[in-house]
Amino acid sequence: MRFHEFEKQKGLSLASRTIRNYARELGADSMDYDMFMKSADLLDKDMLKSLAQHIDNSDTAPREYVLKKIADHNPEIFKKMYGDQEGYLSLMKPQKDLTDDEDNTDRGMNKYGLAARHKDGKFHSYRHGKLTGSFDSAEELAKHQQGLIKDESIKEGADFYGYYKDPKDPSGKTMTYPDDMEFKTPHRSNANARMLLSRIGLDPDFENTDSTPIDDFIAATDKYLRMNVSDKDNPQYDEVEIYDMEAKRIKKAHPEVTHVGFN
User: Fold this and answer.
1) How far apart are CA 92 and CA 123, in angstroms?
2) What's the pTM value of the predicted model, to 2 decimals?
């Protein structure tokens, strides 16, 4: 999928991209980083009721920044949230009839209509919104979904790899992966891989950037899971949890691996 096609996907907005980019400029050590990243995520999901509550519970300065960016870049969304109110942004109250867009498995679909959820100790597979099976491990889930699309040509998408420096390259510039590397997570479209990386605060442009140090990736997924535990029943949380578990599995099974990423 080309970038301009990705830009058109539902939920992505100029306001959320601006807010997310500003959060990255501030860095994860900033006290406002998590507020900005969660605001961008909720805006992307069209979860306007939750977004309004999140903004209302935040400090004045970051609250005004988020409101101003929504007003400047997505005025139709701002009007839906706050109507025709005038005055100080930080004093505005959200509309009482706001709702959250239904958060279902369609949001996590790849180009083959596949999605996955981790709930109640089970890994659930969906295709085009319909349950196709429930499994005890991510490995069983991956094998099941690969079987669903075995007769369909995969021309675009990415798998989650573990990497380390190739000992055969004296320059140390070449990365390789273990010969017995197993793929225990579902094949993802490029767009879904980008959305996952963006959700956990990493650079989403994986096609043009280097892989991520495995400890940094685990720290990012762990932080997301801790900061969003109240959303643990939605597909986005489940997806991050699956990749958190996979990165930790790779680190344990392959101590030589230093980096992870989509390819």
Assistant:
1) 42
2) 0.46
